[in-house]
Design goal:
The complex is a heterodimer.
Chain A (H helix, E strand, L loop, with lengths): L1 H7 L8 H16 L6 H23 L8 H16 L5 H23 L4 H21 L16 E2 L3 E2 L3 H23 L2 H11 L1 H6 L4 H27 L9 H14 L6 H25 L2 H14 L4 H10 L4
Antiparallel strand pairs in A: 1-2
Helix pairs in contact in A: 3-7, 3-10, 3-11, 3-12, 4-5, 4-6, 4-10, 5-6, 5-10, 7-10, 8-10, 11-12, 11-13, 11-14
Chain B lengths: L2 E2 L2 E2 H32 L6 H19 L3 H22 L9 H23 L15 E3 L4 E3 H23 L1 H11 L1 H6 L4 H23 L11 H14 L4 H21 L7 H12 L10
Antiparallel strand pairs in B: 1-2, 3-4
Helix pairs in contact in B: 1-5, 1-8, 1-9, 1-10, 2-3, 2-4, 2-8, 3-8, 5-6, 9-10, 9-11
The chains are: A mainly alpha, B mainly alpha.
């Protein structure tokens, strides 16, 4: 299929220098960040940033708004926690297992949900994720309301122990950058161009002879697998997997990250994720736990403001001002 | 008591009745969603939150103003409808012509705000709402005990659903509404104030949700998150039934409520997911939904 595409179909969009610079600046900032901020907090934030970027691959480039990505994030966290704790697998194999499992799960869920379009697609993904939530509540290995606690981080390649938060952070940073590069490659490949064509005008893409459904399914599977990579990594960082990661509010949170940062931008979801993760911390500092209670309300308000006032998101607005893709 | 397949008829019919009640709420909520989607092209994610607000409005009226169940049955939906119309005029209206997903995101944000405020005020725990005096007690039918209020809830919601169907399909107002759904520009050209019709439709849809909330208040406790999980099931019902037909939405709602009730009796572990499993099956067999038109 790829051969045929390369011959007759779209060409890869050329990587833009501005995008590349933004990426390099981001990587450099993240490399020195643990000297200024808690590495544990940063590592968690990076997991969410990867999750948001994976989600953006689907909503920003294929135009498919999934309302059930917590299924993949939380599902992978459970798989990773179980594999690392009960089977004693090393971190690299743990992440591989979680990513592969959730990728397959994504193909199944994707095959079902792309049978309908538009808002129905969103409602189906939401319902499927809710089903997964109830399954996770009842199957024995997830330990119900308690979740899986005390997950060992293990030794990377049997050599580097990840117990220290700072070491763990740099491991997460590498995973994150690899994930982001993968997304960058996907978006700028011929495959990515077809996805954007489907987003802009699906009937036209069909009439041009593209098998739109297989493209959507592939995008869904890739996005799910990368979300799984993020979820598995998060399980190792926090050393736990709980129902919170599978709840519909998590699906909402990842949408918020991407919406706030900017749908269809490379760096937007990362910035959005850092904002959304940082807000409760900052609120806690300013006003104590009483203030942090208002988190849900604040998130809701950000949704409303973003949709009404700046639909392009933070990075999207800046990019529009600079007339560059970021 | 006659045991049937190893299960007492008492338990069986009790769950069946509860399923029927849930089905009635599914029907009322998906009906409201369908009407709103037809006119505004928006999937109202705040529907579950407004169902909860309806229940809380009844509770407020009773606790602070000593206004009982019967006036609340009218006042609470009216209040929520007004609130909804303000939301439509100030926010949803600006989304006309944009992608569907923005409506979904905006109403999701509104649901978070509403639920968050109530949660901060009341915590996660429930407030009890007493049964109205006239509907206390019940009748022994021989094979089961029928609580009067539950019977009332089913019969009343069925009447509301059928009344809505009659209004939309058989009256002049309904035909105007359907015309505006089909072709708003042309309907305006006939001198009909379509924007006002849209606002009223949204008010009516969320009013229905609030009415379901008031009906639910004496059966379930009034909780800030009572609508949050509920709306997801309603979405699955909408996917199964399709939003194309009014009677389809009503039928799918009642049917799925009953199936859910039966599952609670025969295989309780699956009661939470049975609606979703049916949704998957319907997607595999008939992706457009049982009564739906292709979108």
């Amino acid at each position: 299929m790829t051969h045929a595409l390369a011959a007759k179909g779209p060409t890869a969009s050329r990587p833009k220098p501005a995008e590349f610079i933004a990426f390099a600046v981001l990587a450099a900032l993240l490399a020195v960040a643990p000297f200024a901020l808690y590495p544990f907090f940063l590592a968690t934030a990076l997991c969410f940033a990867l999750f948001a970027s994976a989600f953006n691959l689907l909503v920003g480039y294929a135009g498919l708004l999934s309302f059930g990505h917590a299924l993949f994030f939380g599902g992978a966290a459970y798989i990773a926690a179980h594999v690392a704790k009960v089977w004693g697998w090393p971190p690299e194999l743990t992440l591989l297992a979680a990513t592969a499992f959730v990728g397959l799960l994504g193909l199944v869920a994707g095959a079902l949900s792309i049978r309908r379009q538009g808002i129905y697609f969103s409602m189906i993904t939401l319902a499927l994720a809710q089903m997964g939530y109830f399954v996770a509540l009842q199957v024995p290995f997830t330990h119900g309301e308690d979740g899986i606690q005390g997950v060992p981080r293990g030794k990377l390649f049997g050599l580097i122990p990840l117990g220290d938060d700072r070491v763990m952070y740099y491991f997460v940073l590498v995973v994150f950058l690899c994930g982001l590069l993968a997304i960058y490659r996907i978006v700028h490949s011929p495959f990515g161009s077809v996805l954007k064509a489907i987003r802009e005008n699906e009937p036209r893409a069909i009439s041009l002879g593209y098998s739109v459904d297989s493209y959507k399914l592939a995008a869904f599977g890739l996005s799910a697998a990368l979300a799984g990579l993020a979820g598995g990594t998060k399980a190792l960082v926090t050393q736990s997997a709980t129902l919170t990661d599978m709840h519909w509010s998590m699906s909402g949170e990842v949408i918020l990250m991407v919406l706030l940062g900017g749908m269809g931008t490379m760096t937007g979801p990362v910035i959005g994720a850092i904002f959304v993760v940082a807000i409760p911390e900052v609120l806690n500092r300013i006003g104590g736990p009483d203030f942090a209670q208002w988190m849900t309300v604040i998130q809701g308000a950000i949704f409303v403001i973003c949709v009404l006032a700046f639909r392009r998101g933070l990075i999207g607005e800046i990019a529009a001002r600079l007339r560059r893709t970021l | 008591m006659i045991p049937l397949l190893g299960i007492s008829t008492q338990a069986l019919f009790g769950q069946l009745l509860l399923g029927l009640i849930n089905g009635a709420f599914y029907a009322m909520l998906s009906l409201g969603l369908a009407v709103i989607f037809g006119m505004l092209n928006i999937v109202n994610f705040a529907h579950g939150a407004l169902y909860m607000v309806g229940a809380f409005a009844a509770w407020f009226l009773l606790t602070y103003f000593h206004i009982g169940y019967w006036p609340a049955l009218i006042l609470a939906p009216l209040g929520v409808a007004l609130f909804g119309m303000v939301i439509e005029r100030t926010m949803l209206k600006r989304l006309a012509g944009l992608d569907h997903i923005y409506g979904l995101l905006l109403t999701f944000g509104l649901a978070l705000i509403i639920q968050g405020v109530f949660q901060n005020q009341f915590g996660a725990s429930g407030q009890p709402y007493p049964l109205p005096e006239q509907l206390k007690g019940g009748t022994n039918l021989g094979f089961m005990y029928l609580p009067t209020y539950r019977a009332w809830a089913v019969v009343f919601s069925l009447c509301v659903c059928l009344f809505t169907w009659f209004m939309i399909e058989k009256t002049r107002l309904g035909s105007v509404l359907r015309a505006a759904t089909e072709n708003p520009e042309l309907t305006r050209a006939f001198g009909i104030n379509v924007p006002r019709l849209i606002t009223l439709t949204y008010g009516f849809g969320v009013g229905l949700a609030a009415l379901a909330g008031v009906l639910a208040a004496p059966i379930y406790q009034v909780r800030p998150l009572m609508g949050a999980d509920f709306i997801i099931v309603v979405f699955a019902v909408v996917v199964i039934g399709g939003m194309g037909s009014i009677l389809g939405a009503i039928g799918a709602g009642f049917m799925l409520g009953i199936v859910e009730g039966l599952t609670k009796v025969f295989y309780p572990q699956a009661a939470n997911i049975v609606v979703f499993v049916i949704m998957v099956a319907v997607l595999l067999v008939k992706p457009t939904g049982l009564f739906g038109k292709k979108l």
